[in-house]
Design brief:
Structural class of chain A: alpha/beta
Largest sheet of chain A: 7 strands, parallel
Family (chains A, B): Belongs to the UDP-glycosyltransferase family.
Shape of chain A: globular
Subcellular location (chains A, B): Membrane
Organism (chains A, B): Albula glossodonta (roundjaw bonefish)
Strand content of chain A: 5-15%
Strand order of the largest sheet of chain A: 3-2-1-4-5-8-9
Main location (chains A, B): membrane
CATH class of the largest domain in chain A: Alpha Beta
Radius of gyration of chain A: 28 Å
Keywords (chains A, B): Glycosyltransferase, Membrane, Signal, Transferase, Transmembrane, Transmembrane helix
Number of strands of chain A: 15
Helix content of chain A: 40-55%
Largest interface: A-B, 77 and 76 residues
Number of helices of chain A: 19
Number of domains of chain A: 3
Oligomer: homodimer
Chain lengths: 533, 533
């Protein structure tokens, strides 16, 4: 890299400047999503609190991660008539083991369809419950009046569970989304044109340069997502829209009219695709420099000598893989000279090597930032992938659920990861993947390149988020950045009426010309005949 | 506006920090466009020079604005076999007067078509000459070798005349565009999906919320622009591509593969529309705070007392309107209590009022930033409109040529301008427009709102331009922000093959089901018959 003047050091100063709290804060009403989404949202809220904003978080009484009390927000707890499914850890654990079972045993079409049906039922249930939270709020007139009296400046929400848009509409407040997934697809698909020929649909692990088969698969998933949205997700919220706002307001219009979309996306990680002026990219905003490790862990890491360390973690939701798989992993680890730190919550594999340390929790970001860490065995959750990119650590991907397949595929396409199918994993294939990542320097080079691109920004993603949230407060929205084209009927949006009209006009013109030409010909012929007679 | 913490003061510090020259500069090869486009480009080059970059500008020997010698760049002058049309001031002046004549006299369809044909011929001629400049460069092998030896980091160019992309491809250099218009349309249309149902086409003055008629008109202009691109502009460059690079490289691919598009667009002024990750918005980057006026002018301005001042300018290219129109304008000006400063190069109107000062040049930005200036009578060139927005001065629009009609329309739609058809202008209609702008406070309020939005940015547009130019230097391009979907065949891009395949598959499946059902029915019938017998 040539020595072109960098603004990075200046950017650091900018970050410090921007992080200074303002003198008068605004009031923000927050609708978060539980689980790993909350980790992100909470980080944003901490920062907003430090910038003197007063924050009120709406949570259900069954919430799992979102605590009632916090030093940086007050909360409104909505008592729910039943426990919320998505807030139940066991739901995901049993879901994963069912899925692995089906995949490993090569299930029949019938089993697969029945499993998929179950999944859709669960999705519908989750959204029914999320919409129920809105009903509970609307029923409580005292609560709604107190929200009105509070004069919030905006609603900040994760539209993964989108009930908050109805409350925002009721309170006539502008909205800012902290978003990656929305209802049942990727956020972009709702606001930006997304040609499925090169924009991978969520749930479909294909690259941006696709074969015919991949494009057909992508189209299939796109149609599937539209069907899921239309028949499984939206009805719950549309029912409420009709009930509370009348027939002119649809749930999708409320989503699409959000002022700013803080998208947890960065194009070193996602494929380039069309976007809109009110989409602000904050992918990797949670990344930060590594802190020192606890002394015991540091000692273990240092004991690896020149070989270095591999770390492995499969995320917050997953308690453990089936023992036969973990035993294969342990056997492969035992054969390498590196030390291994493995976050593992299930049964201890009997064939664990001396070089492998099992832990129940690890300071993942601090380890990834440690110079001795050479590779990251990961499930491919968004947060972990961004940390790996930020610190430049190549990845062995073992995707299990949801977007994890797409996440690690994108790293693989860019030469920074090796991906294995966990249901077919053997000690041999896993060892081979580890050795490839450790000894083929191209993986490290690719990851270093991604890391350099990711860190080279005019404004750090978190500062960008703060700026645009405060922009919406100052100007009571950001209407000038938002198209309202979604209000057009679909045939008008796609110009089908105009195209029909133009084709009709051309045909009419051609018809007239032909008729006139015919008439003229006939007259000429008749005149000739008359002359000849 | 509530007292939400602003980053504006911090942003000022950022600007100062970013403006600090780096220690080691890069080498930039520049292909500018003459005329008002050069004003913009030159400003960027001054800034880049101050940041320690070494700049080489390619110009023709007939260039009008782009001087051979400058303190902030060196130049390469290409001797041309003939004078370049676009670099001839008289070309535009005579073009404008022809156009006004036709419009005022309500020309016949034949006259209009012949004028349009002349315009297309001129456009083709301009691009033929611009491509000739590339030929002259390629023929000069010594020059090309010295360019190779110079090891430039990137080509910075205005793709209004796009010959530079061929040179960049020949030298294998990344490109950054400083762009608004490209070949014969708006830059966005070449890289970002642009549904014509809500994205106004260049050359078609319609808002983003269109009637059916406006949508049909917009579609017509879109098709027209594609035809112009295909038959008038591209052939000149495609011929060169075929000659120098072989059949696989087309001119459009070279355009579309540019790394960064610094787009002279801001969404307080343009309508929101889809964009791409490698488009960076720098609209209004040329705006700066007003400096003090020369003492004589300041005296004149102050003499206006509480009534204030109106300024009028119709841009750099236009020498003067027909005398009957200027006489109507002068008569209207004479009837108002405000003072008027009028940049006027033609014959002095005989009925000029005492309150009106004719000047051959005015410090437009400094006047617009003066608190006494109440309104701006303008043709609607991009630079002037951005200055008006920056300083918050409402506009009376008298569009004459090119994009000026669209520019002032956008201000009008936002309530910050009143637009008149110059060919139908009378002293009465002009006076009415002036009085509306001066006495209906909504125009000033709308302009103040646009001005506030425009100035409220996390990074000033000029700093943004510097950052991304240097980003491309540091990383030798910005491939991760750029889609290569344009390389797909059109039917694949629009998924027509996949849609056909899926429809065929569904039909085949339905066919099979029907056939099988038929067969089964027949068998059942036969068995019944057998049973009955």
């Amino acid at each position: 890299m040539k020595n072109i003047p960098r603004v990075t050091s200046e950017v650091f100063i900018i970050s410090v400047l921007l992080a200074l709290p303002g003198s008068h804060g605004g009031k923000i009403l927050v609708f978060p999503v539980d689980g790993s989404h909350w980790v992100n949202m909470n980080l944003l809220l901490e920062g907003l609190h430090a910038r003197n904003h007063s924050i009120t978080v709406v949570r259900s009484n069954t919430s799992w991660y979102v605590k009632e009390k916090s030093p940086h927000y007050t909360s409104i707890t909505i008592p729910m008539p039943e426990a919320i499914k998505i807030e139940d850890q066991n739901f995901f654990v049993s879901f994963l083991s069912r899925m692995l079972e089906i995949q490993r045993e090569g299930a029949s079409v019938l089993t697969f369809v029945s499993f998929y049906w179950e999944m859709l039922t669960a999705l519908s249930e989750i959204h029914r419950q999320a919409s129920q939270l809105v009903v509970e709020m609307f029923k409580n007139q005292q609560l709604m009046q107190s929200l009105r009296d509070s004069q919030f400046d905006l609603v900040l929400m994760d539209p993964g569970l989108p009930g908050g848009v109805l409350v925002a509409h009721q309170l006539q407040l502008p909205t800012v989304f902290n978003v990656r997934w929305i209802t049942s697809g990727e956020g972009h698909f709702v606001v930006a044109p997304s040609p499925v020929s090169y924009v991978p649909t969520s749930g479909c692990a294909v690259p941006d340069k696709m074969t015919f088969y991949q494009r057909a698969k992508n189209m299939f998933h796109y149609i599937l997502n539209i069907c899921i949205d239309t028949f499984v997700v939206s009805p719950h919220y549309n029912r409420l829209c009709a009930q509370y706002f009348g027939p002119d307001i649809s749930f999708y219009h409320l989503l699409q009219s959000s002022d700013i979309w803080l998208m947890r996306v960065d194009f070193v990680f996602e494929f380039p695709r069309p976007t809109m002026p009110n989409i602000v990219y904050i992918g990797g905003f949670q990344c930060k420099p590594a802190k020192a490790l606890p002394s015991e862990l540091e000692e273990f890491v240092q004991s690896s000598g020149e070989h270095g360390v591999i770390i492995m973690s499969l995320g917050t939701l997953v308690k453990g893989l089936p023992t036969d798989i973990t035993s294969e992993i342990a056997a492969a680890f035992a054969q390498i000279p590196q030390k291994v730190i493995w976050r593992h919550l299930g049964e201890r594999p009997q064939n664990l090597g001396n070089n492998t340390l099992l832990v129940e929790w690890m300071p993942q970001n601090d380890l990834l930032g440690h110079p001795k860490v050479k590779a990251f065995v990961a499930h491919g959750g968004t947060n972990g992938v961004y940390e790996a990119i930020y610190h430049g650590v190549p990845v062995v991907g073992l995707p299990l659920l949801f977007d994890q397949f797409e996440n690690v595929l994108r790293l693989e396409v860019r030469g920074a990861a090796k991906v294995l199918d966990v249901t077919k994993l053997t000690r041999k294939s896993f060892l081979q993947a580890l050795q490839d990542i450790l000894h083929d320097s191209s993986y490290q080079r690719s990851m270093d390149h991604l890391s350099k691109l990711h860190r080279d920004k005019p404004l750090q993603p978190l500062d960008s988020a703060f700026f645009w949230i405060e922009f919406v407060m100052r100007h009571k929205g950001a209407a000038h950045l938002r198209t309202e084209s979604y209000k057009m009927p679909w045939y008008a949006y796609h110009s089908l009426d105009v195209i029909s009209f133009l084709i009709a006009a051309v045909l009419a013109l051609m018809g007239t010309v032909i008729v006139m030409f015919n008439l003229m010909c006939r007259r000429v012929c008749r005149m000739r005949k008359l002359k000849q007679q």
